[in-house]
Write a structure and sequence with these properties.
single chain, alpha/beta, Rossmann fold, four-stranded mixed beta sheet, 11 strands, 34% helix
């Protein structure tokens, strides 16, 4: 993989060969079953590559909002010979289509960018789409992985039809509580919404921490 030398997560990949071990192992297990993964917040493509490399039958729709990451994401997919399996969208995923201000974040990190409620020299306008509008009616999604720096709840809202029809089997998302507060998103919104549309939701680490990983699966 092409990596950014000062990025903390990329350093983990360079020195250990993996990033977020628990999530990597979970996605690898799902990937053996095969199917389509949606990677919302693909960054440089680590999880997309992991999924596609598990089987030639696996497919990925990779969404990445930050313009800083687009060239590297495309490069990594090409380097690994996975162009036919991974489709890249240089745009954000959210609760409604349009454009939003996006903060690029610190120069030394690739994954700290996210939606912003203010405009300044570090923000750009990005295109936003909903998953409901991008997934055809015949597609089933094995895994939806979301990591969009506080706006994960909005991604889920934009996938309401898919979730209500149980066309998404497994969901992994994150609560970045500091970024959520800036966007006016409550901690309980995503879990409550998923339970309302028929999913079982559980935290994968301390739910009182500032950064909480969640897993949800469709109820039988």
């Amino acid at each position: 993989m092409s990596l950014w030398p000062t990025d903390e997560g990329h350093s983990n990949i360079a020195f250990t060969g993996f990033y977020e071990l628990d999530l990597s192992e979970r996605l690898t297990k799902h990937a053996r079953q095969g199917g389509l993964m949606i990677d919302a917040g693909a960054n440089y493509g680590y999880f997309s590559l992991l999924w596609a490399a598990a089987s030639i039958q696996n497919r990925v729709l990779a969404f990445e909002a930050s313009p800083r990451n687009h060239a590297a994401l495309n490069k990594n997919v090409t380097l690994n010979g996975l162009i036919s399996q991974i489709r890249i969208f240089d745009m954000a995923v959210g609760k409604e289509a349009g454009t939003l201000s996006f903060s690029l974040g610190a120069q030394d990190e690739t994954g700290w960018g996210g939606f912003s409620d203010s405009d300044n020299e570090k923000t750009v306008l990005v295109s936003v789409v909903t998953l409901d509008s991008r997934i055809s009616e015949d597609q089933q999604i094995e895994v939806l992985k979301i990591d969009v720096e506080g706006a994960d709840t909005w991604v889920l809202y934009g996938a309401k039809k898919l979730l209500e029809s149980k066309r998404i089997k497994h969901v992994y998302f994150e609560q970045n509580k500091e970024r959520m507060r800036l966007l006016g998103i409550r901690d309980t919104e995503a879990p409550d919404f998923l339970r309302k549309v028929g999913y079982t939701v559980k935290p994968l680490n301390d739910p009182n921490s500032g950064l909480v990983e969640y897993y949800a699966t469709a109820e039988a």
